Amino acid sequence: MLQTAKTARTAATSILDESERWEMKVDLGKQLVFPDIVHTTHRPDIVIWSPKDKKLGMIELTVPWETRCDEA
Asked: Per residue in 26-46, pLDDT tens?
């Protein structure tokens, strides 16, 4: 008797669930430039991307990182 396992496919709850591999660049005091991903005039604080799935997330911090890092 053969039993087949059925895998239930769950919907992604966030963009991070949509890929298995993410890369990240962080702006540490200078203007972050990422020309290998996309050409833009935006300069976010953090950029995450998945080259395989062609997903991109640009994060702009609203609290100064240096002053609030100790509280986190």
From this structure: 777 766 666 566 666 667 778
- The letter for the amino acid at 64 is P
CA atoms within 13 A on the CB side of 33: 3
Phi-psi map region of 29: left, alpha, beta (phi>0 left; psi -120 to 50 alpha): left
Residue 13 DSSP label = S
Q: Strand order of the sheet with strand 55-59? A: 23-26, 46-50, 55-59
Contact 59, 46 (CB under 8 A): yes
Query: What pLDDT score does 30 carry?
Result: 67
CA 50/CA 43 separation, integer angstroms: 18
Which residue matches tokens 């997330």?
Answer: 57
CB 32 within 8 A of CB 45: yes
Which of 49, 18, 15 is CA-nearest to residue 35? 49
